[in-house]
Amino acid sequence: MSKKIFPLQADELEKIIEKYPTPFHIYDEKAIRANMKRLFKAFAWAPGFREYYAVKAAPNPRLLQILKSEGAGADCSSLPELILAAKTGITGEKIMLTSNDTPADEFQKAIELGAIINLDDISHIDYLEANAGLPKVISFRYNPGSVIEGNDIIGKPEEAKYGLTREQMFAAYAIMKEKGIKRFGLHTMVISNELHENAFSTTAEMMFKLAVELKEKLGIAMEFINLGGGIGIPYRPEENEVNLEAISANIKKLYEKIMLPAGLNKTEIAFESGRAITGPYGYLVATVLHEKKTYKDYIGLDASMANLMRPGMYGAYHHLVIAGKENEPSTYTYDVTGSLCENCDKFAVDRKLPKIAIGDRVIIFDTGAHGHSMGFNYNGKLRSAELLLKEDGSVELIRRAETIDDYFATLRGFKGSII
Ligand SMILES: *Cc1c(COP(=O)(O)O)cnc(C)c1O
User: Fold this and answer.
1) Which of 5, 80, 313, 367 is placed for a possible disulfide with 282 were both Cys, Cβ 3.0 to 4.6 Å?
2) What φ, ψ does residue 203 adopt, rounded to 5°?
3) Is 344 a catalytic residue?
4) Would you say 248 is a known binding-site residue?
5) Beta-carbon neighbour count of residue 266 at 10 Å?
């Protein structure tokens, strides 16, 4: 069981809404800091443990600043993400470029920033060298294919567009060595929103063995092994939080068993977790606009799928509560919807909830990663504001809501005033 507790009382929330109308995402700084500290503490045994926060999860410089001050770097996958990290003061090897199908300008910016470049394909070696030059530190993303077939936890890597095959990995490092690169890392990302602890051991074991083989065959001692993101969070209250300490203890055992005897005692362990860092500490707050009764009971919010795409896109569960009614019995069944002209624009389907009234505030949980950042403008919907609930209890606007002017800003070829 995981506890789903919003950090503000209903009356405190109303005060915030007086100043910042709904919908908005609000992030809990204190909880994010504590969580970041917990990850570093769990891996304190690992030499030079690193976390590159996956910027795509919540690309807000204020959040990155907080994570940076807790020791995180940035995992970037686009030019704007690289610039965003740099503007936050995350530079050099605190940045890892892990994109795929990567354009030249991303490679150029990464080289300019002194970032670690993680290549997604063997053919990118020549492309990188021709378009941007070679970096000091290079890593390659491993796709194990069906090597670990039958492991239903990891899924089907051979169906994924990412990474190099096993044979290509050996060839790629040999080429890079030949080209004079001296510093290397190893990367993979084969799990997503994973709650099973043993999935992380499986990944670590696979990567440690590969690092040992690369050392034996090519004489390369990996500086780091990046195990990717993919640490899950309990979206459903009945799910349990991932036990980071247990994951760490298992990885430590494997490190001692596989890495140390091979003389790889300096290789650093890295993650590029997004969801598990900020996910549970962001909330989408919306207001009930309408109640509609047809074949079902619908509660219509002032937020839509444009503010949180996961339920509509993946059928993902997001817990939600009605502010001030947390302790009322859930005796009604509702579909909670947005206003998009798409029937999948529902935050909840057949959800048991207390009786809802128009004007109620709905708090949707676990929107701190892959929430606001997946927003879009379909149907002329505007992206919401982002707020930070600071450690001292005050609230800071960290992204204003989009306006109609923003929506029109990129349009060309029409004359006249907008409004
Ligand atoms: C999306 C992504 C992550 C972060 O995934 P989470 O589920 O947020 O932990 C990390 N690395 C890469 C390469 C990704 O694409």
Assistant:
1) 367
2) -65, -45
3) no
4) no
5) 12
Distance CA 36, CA 53 (A): 10
Q: Are 43-273 and 280-408 in the same CATH fold?
A: no
> What would the pLDDT profile of 69-112 be if each residue is shown by its tens digit?
999 999 999 999 999 999 999 999 999 999 899 999 999 999 99
Domain boundaries of the chain, sorted by first residue: 43-273, 280-408
Element (H, E) at 396: strand 395-399
Q: For the segment 335-386, what is each residue's pLDDT rounded down to a tens digit?
A: 999 999 999 999 999 999 999 999 999 999 999 999 999 999 999 999 999 9
Q: Which CATH superfamily is domain 280-408 in?
A: Lyase, Ornithine Decarboxylase; Chain A, domain 1 (2.40.37.10)
Task: State the fold for domain 43-273.
Answer: TIM Barrel (3.20.20)
Nearest residue by C-alpha to atom 13 in ligand 1: 98
Distance from residue 159's CA to the centre of ligand 1 (Å): 17
Pairing verdict, β 361-364 and 320-322: antiparallel
CA 233–ligand 1 middle distance (angstroms)? 13
